[in-house]
Every structure is written in C-alpha cells, then in structure tokens.
Amino acid sequence: xxxxxxxxxxxxxxxxxxxxxxxxIFAERAGVLNLGVEGMMLIGAMSAYSIAVYTGNPWLGLLxxxxxxxxxxxxxxxxxxxxxxxxxxxxxxxxxxxxxxSLVLGEGLSKAGTIPLIPTYTVPLLSQIPIIGPIFFTDQKxxxxxxxxxxPLCYYFINHTRPGLHLRSVGEYPAAADSLGINVYRLRYxxxxxGGLFAGLAGGTISLAISPGWFSELTTSGQGWIAIGLVIxxxxxxxxxxxxxxxxxxxxxxVLDIQGPTMIFGLANPFYYNPYWGFxxxxxxxxxxxxxxxxxxxxxxRKRLGSPSALGVPxxxxxxxx
Amino acid sequence: MDQPTPSxxxxxxxxxxxxxKHFPGVLANxxxxxxxxxxxxxxxxxxxxxxxSTLMNILAGLYHPDxxxxxxxxxxxxxxxxxxxxxxxxxxxxxxxMLVPSQTVAExxxxxxxxxxxxxxxxxxEQEIAxxxxxxxxxxxxxxxxxxxxxxxxxxxxxxxxxxxGANILIMDEPTAxxxxxxxxxxxxxxxxxxxxxKSIIFISHKLHEVSQIADRVSxxxxxxxxxxxxxxxxxxKTDLARLMVGREVIFSLEKNPCxxxxxxxxxxxxxxxxxKGLKALRGLSLQVRQGEIVGLAGVAGNGQRELAxxxxxxxxxxxxxxxxxxxxxTNRSVKTGIHHGVSHIPEDRTHVGSAPNLSVTDNVIMKKxxxxxxxxxxxxxxxAATNYASELKQAYEIIAPNLETPVRLLSGGNLxxxxxxxxxxxxxxxxxxxxxxxxxxxxxxxxxxxxxxAQRDAGAAVLLISEELExxxxxxxxxxxxYEGAIMGEVANGNIQHIGLxxxxxxxxxxxxxxxxxxx
Lengths: 322, 521
Prior knowledge:
The complex is a heterodimer. Chain A is mainly alpha-helical. Chain A is built from 14 helices and four strands. In chain A, the strands form two sheets. A two-stranded antiparallel ribbon of chain A has the order 1-2. Chain A has a two-stranded antiparallel ribbon with strand order 3-4. In chain A, a hairpin with a 2-residue loop joins strand 3 and strand 4 (267-268). In chain A, helix 1 (3-29) runs antiparallel to helix 11 and helix 2 packs parallel to helix 4 (87-105). By secondary structure, chain B is an alpha/beta fold. Chain B folds into three domains: 12-246, Rossmann fold (3-Layer(aba) Sandwich), CATH 3.40.50; 262-342 and 429-521, 3-Layer(aba) Sandwich (Rossmann fold); 349-428, no CATH class. Chain B is built from 17 helices and 22 strands. A six-stranded mixed beta sheet of chain B has the order 6-7-8-3-9-10, sandwiched between helices. A six-stranded mixed beta sheet of chain B has the order 16-19-20-13-21-22, with helices on both faces. In chain B, a hairpin with a 5-residue loop joins strand 11 and strand 12 (280-290). In chain B, helix 13 (413-425) runs parallel beside helix 14. The longest helix of chain B has 16 residues, at 181-196. Chain B starts with 11 loop residues before the first strand and ends with a helix. Chain A binds chain B through residues 160-166, 168-169, 172-173, 175-177, 179-182, 299-300, 303-304, 306, 309, 319-322, and chain B through 23, 53, 57, 62-63, 81-83, 86, 94, 96, 98-103, 107-108, 110-113, 116-120, 161, 276-278.
C-alpha cells in the first residue's frame, strides 16, 4: 500500500477517463450531449485489439479505433442534429448499438494470445523530481504523456482560438452564431466526431495499454459513464477534467491495494477481513456518477455549473429567422 | 469625416421595388416599395404583423423575396444569407439580441469573422473596438462579459458588431422596445452621430412619438401593403400616421372611472428570490395592491418582473419574505392554494405557460373549472357542460376561432389572449397578475384587453399590471411603481414619465430631487 504506486497507477488508469472526458467536453461544448460514450469506447477497444492482433501494430490499432468510434458517433450526429431527435434517446441507442456490435465482432478475440502493446517510457530528468517524478514521469505508457499534452492544448483551443470561439458560441447560442454566417450544423457534426475520436482513443488505450486484452463488456466496465459524470464535475473545463480523471483512476487502484495488508493505521484492516467493504469502495465511482448525473440533469443546477446553454437542444433555424 | 455633405438630390442607397413575400396562409408583403437615402433616418412604421420585419429581413438576407427587385447603391442584388448582406454593407440589429452571454464583448464582435485567423490576440482587437466605439459614442467595455451588461449596453454591442463589419446601412428592429427612457435618448444621440458620419439608418417601430422624434422620413405598412412611402416626417401629425398605420381613426385615450381602492388584497413583505441562473432576482421587494385599483409595475426587462409574478402565483420559491393574499400567508404554497385564494395569472408566455397549445379552446378555458360541477361529474367530465361553458365564453369574450375544438396554437395572438383572459376572468379573481398582456397584439386587440382589465378593476379586483410599455402603464394604472434590480424604487401616481424613467435606471424616489437638479445644471 504505497501511496506513490497508487497515485502512479491512478494517473495511468485515469488517462482512459481523461480521453473520454475530453472528447465529451468537445461534443457538449458544441451543444450535443452524447450518452453513447461507453459504447464508442467499447467498439474502440475491440477495434484496436483486433487490428493489433491481425497486423501486430498497436499504433495502427489505436488509429483504427479512433476512426471506427468517430464514424459511429456520426450516427448520433445524424439523428440528433439533422433529424433533430432527442439527444438522450439517440445517444443511448448509439451506446446499445455500438456495444452490441463490439460484442459480436469481438467474439473469440479474448483467446487471441499475446500481442504487442503500446510501450512505456521514463522521462529523463523529470523522473528524478521527488514524488512528482515517480508518479507522473516513471514507467508510464506513452499515451499517458499524450494526455499531459492534450489537456493544456484542449484548454487553449477552446478558450483562446478562433475555432474555439466558434465552438463555444455554437453550444451557447447557436442562433447568434448562425446570424453571423457560422455553419452550426457542420460544427456540431465535427465536434461530435471529435468526441468519437477521443472515445475510440480511450477504448484503445484500455485494450492496448492500461489493462490489455479483450474481456467483452468488462473491458470498459462503465468507464464511459464515469466520463459523462466527470464532464459535469469538471464544469466542461479540460483542466478540471484532468484532476477528476486522475483522482478516479487512483481510487480504482486504491480499492485493489487496500485489501492487501492485515493492519492499517495500526488497526485491523476491515477491507482485508471483510470483502464487502472492498465492493463498497469499488462502487463509489459509479455511485458518484449516478449522483452527479441526477443532480446535473436539473437544469437550474446545470446552468449554475456553467453548462453550455444550448446543451441538449437541437438547433432549428426559425421559420422567421430567429 | 470620410464623406462630403450629400448634395441634393440625395443619393439613394437602397431601392426595393414591388417586393412580394408569402408565408403559409399570409401575404406578408404585397408589392411593397421602399427607398433609403444616404445619411437619413428612415422610419418604417406599422402594427405588429404588418410586414415591417419581413421586409427588412428580406433586405438583410434572411428571407428570399417571392417577387420584386432590390438595388443597393444602384446595383441589383439578391442575398441568400445575412453574410452576403453584411458584405454589401447592410447590417440588421434584431429585436432579440444575437449575443452569446457567456462571452466577452470583443469575442462577440469578432465571432464569425475571418480575422483573427487562429489565435485570438484579444488585446489588439479590443483596442480597435474601443476606438470604433468612441467614434460613434457607443460606450461599452470590450472586455466585459455580455451577461454583465445592461440591455442598452448589449444593444450598443450589436450596433458595434455591425459597424465593425463595415455596415453603412443599419436596420434597427424596434430598438427602443427594451430600453429605459434615458437609454432611448442615448440611443437617439448615437443614431444622429452615425448619420452625421454618413451612415443610413432604417428604424422599425410601431411607436408614433418616436418616429416623429427621430426620423427624417417615414414609410408605413398596413397588412403587408405600403400606405405611405418616404414621406417627410415633419409634414405628418401623429394622428395622420396612426390613420395610415391602423386604417381608421384611433382613440388615444381610455375612458376610466375614478379609482375607489378598498382593502389590501395583495401584500408583499421583503421578498427575496433567485432567477433560473441562481442569481438574486428579487431583493427585499415590498408592495401592496388594493381592491379596485390597478397597480402598474414599470421597469426595464429582466429586473425581476418575471420572478415576482412567479413567486406571487406560486411557480417559484421565495427565499425570504411573505406573500399575503387577503391576509392569508400563501408564501411558497402550491399554485392551487393561490387559485383558491382568488389569484389569477396572465403569464408573459402565452403559448407555453398561459395555454396548452395543442389542446382545444374548450379544454383551455375549462382548465380552472374542470374540478367543479357542472363540468365535473364525480371523477368524470361532463363534455356537454364543458362545451356549453366554452361556447358561452367564446361569445362573451368575442373569441374568433373556427370552432371550439380548434387547437389554440392555431389562433392569432389576440384571440389566444382572449382565451386566457376568458379563463382567468371567469374565475372571478380577487387578484389578477397580468404580465405583458398586450405584447405583440395589434391596436384593436390591445384596446380589448385594456377594457377587460379596467372592467376587472371596476368589479373590485386588485390588478397588478406588469408591462414594458410605459404608455400602457400610465394610461391604465392608478399608481405606477418602479422595479429596479428586484426592489421597488418608488411610486408615481400622476404619470410623471420623467420620474418613472429615472427610477427605472435605479434612482430611488427620495433621491429624485438631487438627480433632477443635476440634470438641470
């Protein structure tokens, strides 16, 4: 039960949540809620693993995972943006569809044997920093470092660039954007696609790096839902999303480690003697997700948290132009 | 100045000939001609639904005309999007502002432009915007977030947005509707500064006194047909304009019996409440309304009027304070409790709050009666009684509908408002909360609503009238109280519009004297 190891593993497993959360932030900032993250992650994990099995190239696996999940997200885009259907219903359906397809196509994949994985890397110098070094820069998957880069990039893109300004305005007040010649529909399609790319990347990160292998729906085990909760917790801000993701990642590892020792803080360790306590801990992230989603589904609270004003509302150009 | 003084005859910048526009079931513009000269303020006058906005939306590229031609600076044009119109120098400022509240002024102005290309070096553009706003006297901080701005400031941002895009022709759709009187004066000064610098302005309005005050020339539309085109405003009286607009003589004054206030019906004590965003919308508001009087609540939109109506009718929670009706505390009780105490509500949003749009006229008028005999028969409904009741109301309130089964969403605004009034008045209310009861109605329908409200007052109801139309408030109300940022600033009984205007900008009644002196000096 070394806290450094727990945190190090937290950053590692948290990277999956981080990718999925960042993707959902893009989609939601453009005004489209996509509840199909879990399904898109699963199809990403499956595609990444299959491609790695057949070609022996994990990088190609990741790329295909992103494209496949991105294409799947466009089903949701078409239904909710062009057909202007309810985003909740459409997103859930997409999730079911993607899950079903990945389970069918992933049949037998778990017996595929060993495959090449995404490599790990230790950053020279940075890994020497006490505490920070071992947690963030030692023996981490290359994708973890990609996460470090993406967080500030996404933040800067959303808040300080022209495309970011357009993204925000489309999610906040599409009519204003439309009146200035910004193509609301095109941008929404684009960012739902970006959300899909990220979800696919998250899935591939699971099956090829963090917990390698294909374990049907247990591969993602509900992390897509946690990501949706994290978006609200992060208030649609990539930097807060990183904190949330790493904390939740650490919690996953803590649950495993805390059941090891017989004594804890000089007392009998309840997690060792009674496995139900461990189950309780394991449940916490999901319970948190449910609570956040229930609270976040109240419009008044969402607004207070700074939710994009047009989130979940299909944009229909008014007959009278407004 | 980048333009020399225009020589006569004045240069014509916009010429619209024989414009025709159909909407399903309506001929919104029927061969309308319109011309705009350089450096003039040209008013486009007409009632709601006369086709003014349609005509201007065509010029601004939002609609495509079904017939007719448009010349801009002598060249024929055919816009398929607002963007093309802006490129031709035509910018429209809509009644509903097209601003993203969570973004800054500069971000809103730069939205949709090709420059900056990728990185938003805001400080550089903020300076440019500041320069532009100085040149036209449009004071606003480019770094402020739009949600922090007053409505008047937001309007300035809209104007700046168009000027920044190089618009020389500005179309302003009812720009004064949302402003306090002092803000209207500022706007008029800005408009004059802009025409002095060679811009041309089209000013859409249905308010006669504003048109005579600001416009050089005026064109009038009535039911899609042009009844006057490019007439010098100086040669027209208010009555002339009204006749052109409505098509008959209009009586400007209401017959009103003297007010005989009775006991206090509505008593509000130190009310506090939040708006939908969780910000304080009511801050310690206290108010009394008596039997047999109409109390008008004046204020610039968004100063807590909606929240106040919600709290009184039980639709929103009060955080602090009390709502008493006839001495009974109904604070934070259900809407039903309010109805039992005789509270009736004419909501601002006629189609979504005031009525169930897909239900029939019958269903909408029995909504307060369906639990009582004869319409209720045990737990069943007596359809015959309901229909009889509805047809009585239809006749009494002159509701024009094909039949009682027509869904109310198909009714015109005036008729829908009559359905709501019929329902609310027939419940014999002790207290009536009427919010914007005439918004969007034509002159005839407005007269009808006013008469019904006065009749309620004379029958002994207490009426709280919430409106943004100052004239309506002054004409109808026995007292006008002014709300600003969720508190009452003071009360005016003699219809002193200057006092009301000052209080609408946050001056308390006891400070009025100081401000009036300051203004004189």
